[in-house]
Amino acid sequence: MPRLLIVDDHPLSGRALGVTMGSLPGLKVMGETTRHDAIRRTVQLAPDVVVWHTEDLDRESLGVIRSISTRPAASRVLVLGAADVVPLALKALRAGASGFLPDSSTPEEFMPAIRAVAVGGAAISPRLTHRLIEFLRARPVDVFREWHRLDTLTSREREVLSAMARGWTNTETAQHMCLAPTTVKTHVSRILTKTGARDRLQAVVLALNARLTSHSKNPPAA
């Protein structure tokens, strides 16, 4: 059962969110706190997931998320933010959050995300995938700063990473590339090791920053 710590700088809002989360089956809310006490409470309670509810992330908040995410036996951070706000999602992911969902998400969307993040995976709203790609394509970035993290990847591994950045599953990637799903899984593991990405989500952000994807193609039909 995933154990949650709610972070919200508005105590009443945080309490309401805690009650809502606690009413969902299979979740245990261990407490609510603000960003100023988030690190201490995370150390004290050792939650599986820190659910960070916010309208924006300032430098202090980003530093706290980074600290929580990089501690030994780190808790994972899932940010709930304003719907479809791409810059906020990018700030959260770059700070080390393992997921981002709009705060308008339904329980049916939230529960799988919590479970994925709790066991070391990642989660992001499907509605944001296309918007993230378009946002990064439209803005200049230091491509060479990102590409040097990819220069050890083989051409096949770059293809797999590109597919990940398009939102394809391992099964869809395997079908498109005529590979076994286990082979794709091995490629993903090597990509994470070589790039230093902690999980698939960080690898995807790296790929998007480095302009690894061309115009998005649809995955093969099931």
How would you describe this structure in keywords?
222 residues, alpha/beta, six-stranded parallel β-sheet, 11 helices, globular
Describe the structure.
It is a single chain. The chain has 222 residues and is an alpha/beta fold. It has helices at 11-22, 38-45, 59-70, 86-94, 107-118, 126-137, 143-147, 155-165, 170-177, 181-195, 200-209, and strands at 3-7, 28-33, 49-53, 76-81, 99-102, 123-124. It has a six-stranded parallel β-sheet, sandwiched between helices. Helix 1 links the parallel strand 1 and strand 2. It is globular. The relative contact order is 0.10.
Strands in their spatial order, largest beta sheet:
2-1-3-4-5-6
Distance between the termini: 32 Å
Mind describing the biggest β-sheet?
6 strands, parallel
Order of helices and strands: EHEHEHEHEHEHHHHHH
**Structural class category:** alpha/beta
> Helix content range of the residues, please?
40-55%
What is the C-alpha radius of gyration, as a whole number of Å?
Answer: 18 Å
Low-confidence parts: 141-145, 214-222
Offer a quick outline of the entry:
Helix content is 51%, strand content 13%. The protein is built from 11 helices and 6 strands.
Topology:
Elements: E1 3-7, H1 11-22, E2 28-33, H2 38-45, E3 49-53, H3 59-70, E4 76-81, H4 86-94, E5 99-102, H5 107-118, E6 123-124, H6 126-137, H7 143-147, H8 155-165, H9 170-177, H10 181-195, H11 200-209
Parallel strand pairs: 1-2, 1-3, 3-4, 4-5, 5-6
Helix pairs in contact: 8-10, 8-11, 9-10
